From TrEMBL, chains A, B:
Record InterPro entries: Ald_DH/histidinol_DH, Ald_DH_C, Ald_DH_N, Aldehyde_DH_dom, G-glutamylP_reductase_CS, Glu-5-SA_DH, GPR_dom
GO molecular function terms noted in the UniProt entry: glutamate-5-semialdehyde dehydrogenase activity; NADP binding
Record GO biological process: L-proline biosynthetic process
Reaction catalyzed: L-glutamate 5-semialdehyde + phosphate + NADP(+) = L-glutamyl 5-phosphate + NADPH + H(+)
Signal sequence bounds: none
Protein name as catalogued: Gamma-glutamyl phosphate reductase
Pathway this chain belongs to: Amino-acid biosynthesis; L-proline biosynthesis; L-glutamate 5-semialdehyde from L-glutamate: step 2/2
Segments forming a coiled coil: 19-49
Ranges for domain Aldehyde dehydrogenase: 3-279
Amino acid sequence: MNIREEVKRMKADSPQMAALSLEMRNRALEETARELESRKEEIFAANARDLQAAEEANLPPSVQKRLKFDEHKLLDVVKGIRELEKLSDPLAQVQLARQLDENLNLYRVSCPIGVIGIIFEARPDALVQISALCIKSGNCAVLKGGKETAATNKVLFEIIYQTVVGCGLPKGCLLQAEQHQEIDELLSCHDCVDLLIPRGSNSFVQYIMNHTKIPVMGHADGVCHIYVDEDYDMEKALPVVVDAKTQYTAACNTMETLLVHRNIAEEFLPEAAKALTEAGVKFRGTEEVSRYIDCEVMEEEEFHTEYLDLMLSVKLVDSLEEAITHINTYGSHHTDCILTENSRHAERFMQLVDSAGVYQNCSTRFADGFRYGFGAEVGISTGKIHARGPVGLEGLVTYKYKLYGQGQIVADYAEGRKTFHFQELSEE
Amino acid sequence: MNIREEVKRMKADSPQMAALSLEMRNRALEETARELESRKEEIFAANARDLQAAEEANLPPSVQKRLKFDEHKLLDVVKGIRELEKLSDPLAQVQLARQLDENLNLYRVSCPIGVIGIIFEARPDALVQISALCIKSGNCAVLKGGKETAATNKVLFEIIYQTVVGCGLPKGCLLQAEQHQEIDELLSCHDCVDLLIPRGSNSFVQYIMNHTKIPVMGHADGVCHIYVDEDYDMEKALPVVVDAKTQYTAACNTMETLLVHRNIAEEFLPEAAKALTEAGVKFRGTEEVSRYIDCEVMEEEEFHTEYLDLMLSVKLVDSLEEAITHINTYGSHHTDCILTENSRHAERFMQLVDSAGVYQNCSTRFADGFRYGFGAEVGISTGKIHARGPVGLEGLVTYKYKLYGQGQIVADYAEGRKTFHFQELSEE
C-alpha cells in the first residue's frame, strides 16, 4: 500500500483516536514506557547496526553521537513519557461556555488536530518523543525519521505501535514512512494531513514549506539578535552575549548578530570581543566595526546569515530605532534581545520587534519549551498563525464548537421574534 | 508603485501600527464613523454610478441588491463601527505570566498578526467592516474588493484612509488594490503578508488557497448536514430542517444534505418533504429515497455537492456510525447537526464528527460570529490551524513571548548551577 492510501485510512481512524479517554491514552503511554524498557536489548542491537553503518559511511562524529541510543538515552525517553503522562489533558478543555438564548448553549472545546505529519532528524529519541506527544494529544501521526537511524527507528516504531494498538488505540494511530521518496507523497496529501511539522536543516524545512499545501508549523531560520543599548550594564552583558553565542552553537536560538549602540562601541566592543574570542568565536562586521575589533568585513546583505557556528556578525547602530529596523529587516522573527537598564527602551524594543520572543537582559538560548515550563516541546514556530515561539502540547490541538438546542431556528432571531441574550455559563 | 513595493512599505510600518494605544485605535474608528456620516452624499453618488453600471451590464438582481449602499446600509456600518469601539482590546492581553526563576519573568502577550490581505466580494459595507476590524486589532490591511463596486469602494477607502491617517495612524495602515491582476501579485508576497482572508465563491477561494504560500484563513465549501436520528422529535425536526435549508440558501452554513435513519424514513421523510416543498425546496436522493419522496436519483459521489440553492441531497443510513462516516467523508468540516432526544447519541456525534461546529437540535444557520456573540465576525474557517469556525477579532491576533531577565544565562541551568522553579505570577 502506498503512503497516500495509508494516510487516507489514518484520516478515517482519526475521529476514533480523538475520542479516546485520557485514561486510555495515558495507559498506552505507560505500557509503551514499560515495553521500551523490557525490550531494550533489541533496541540497542538495532542501534549498533546503525552506528556501524554510520562509521563505515564515515559520518561526522557529531552526527554519529546523535545516532546513539544507549541506556542513558532510554532512561531519558522513558522519563519523558512518564512526565507526559502526568501533564493535564490537553483535550476536552472548555474554552468558552455561553448561553446564546434559553436552552441554546454554546461550548468551545479543545480537540486534536487530526492527522499530523512529522519529518524529523536522525535521532532515535525523537521518534519516541513525537509518538508520545501525539498519543497524549489524541492525534494520528505519520512519522518519517532520518535514514541514518533506520534500523533503530524500525524497532522503536514496532515496539510502540504493537503496544499502543494492544492497548486499544485504532490501527491508524501511527504510521512510519521509511523511504525518502515517501516525503513528496506525504506533501501531496493535503486532503488528509492536517498539519506538517518538519525538523531539520533550514534548506530542508524551506523545501517542505515550498512544496506543500498542508499548513506547516516550524521555522526555517533562526537569525537571533542581541542589541546592546547605550544604557547597558557591562557585568550583565558579557556573560549573556557569550552564552547566547556559544552555549550551543547549532541551536536555532543562538545569537547570530550583535548590534551595538555607536556611543558605547569603543567601551563595549573590545571587552565583548575578548570574552567571545576566549570562547572560540570569530567575527564578521561592517568596515566600522573592524576599527574596534579584529574581524572580516562583510556586506549589508549578509546580515541575513545564520551561521550555527562560532561566528558572529557585528554592526553598530545610531539608535534603538535603527536596531529595531535592522532586526525586523534581517532577522527571522525568532528571538531577539535588548541589553539595557532603561525600561522605557526595553518596552519599546519589545513592542516594536516583530519576533516570537523579545527579551531584556537574558540569553536568547532561553527560547525553548522546557525552559518556558511547558513540560514538552513540539517545536519552535516562527509563523504567526496557530502557534508562535516554543510550542507545547497546545500546538497539537484545535477546538470545535458544540451547540445544544431544543429545536431553535434562525428565522425567529432574524425576524425579531426572539433575541439572543448572550450569558456566560459557569464551568461545569 | 506596484503592490509588492507598497506591501513592503506596509510591512515596515506594521510594528508602528501594532504599537498604537487602544485610545488611538478607537479614536480613529470614531472619526471614521463621523466622516462616513458627514460625507454620505459623496458615497451615495459613487454608489449610484456602480448601480447604473450594474444595470447596464445586466447583472442579476440579487447582485445588484448587494451592491447598493444607501442610508440604511450606512446606518448599519456606522453602528457596527461604534459596537467595535466598545469591544475590549484584543491586544496586550496577558495570556500567561510565569516566573521561570528569580527575576526571570515570562509573559505571553497578544499582539496583531501584522499585514493581512483581504479579498472580498462586491459589497461596499464589507470594505468598511474589514477596515474597522483591522484598525481595532492593530493590523495593516491590503483590501481588494469586487470590481462591481469600484466607484463606491474608492470613495469609502479615501474617506477611511484620510481620516485614520489624520488621526495619526501610519501611512502604511491600509492599502486598496483596485486591479484584478493585483491579486496574483498579492498572492506572491509571502515575505510581507502574514495572512490572507479570501471571501467569495468556492472556486475563487480554492484558487487563492492553491496559488499562494501565505497562510489562508477561510473556507471554500460549506457542505453542512443534518442527521435525523432514530430518537428524533418530529416537532423540533421539521422547523429545523426547513430553517437550515431555506432561511438563506446562499450562505455557507445552509444544510446541503439530509441524512435519515432508515427506521424512521417512512414516518419522517414524507412529512419533511411536505414542509420543505412548501418552502420551495426540490430533492435529489438515492434510489431508495425516491421510494418515499419525489426526487431526482443521484450518485454517491454527488454527495460532495454544495447547492447554495433550494435543492437538497437526501440519503438513508443504518446507524449513527454510518451518518458520522458519511459526514466525515463527504462534508466540508463546517457545521453538522444531529436531531435526537438521545443525549448519548448526541455526544457520540459531537465527538466523532470532525467539523468546526457540531450541533444538537438546532439549525446549522446558527454558525455565525454574531450569533455566537463575538460582536464582530472576520469570517468562518474550516481549517484547523489558528482559528476554526466563526472567527471574531481574536482571529486577527497572535502573541509574543516577553522575557525579562537580570543577566541570566542558559549555561547556569544546563550545568546544574541553577534550576527553574516555574511559578505562575498573579495578573498585574
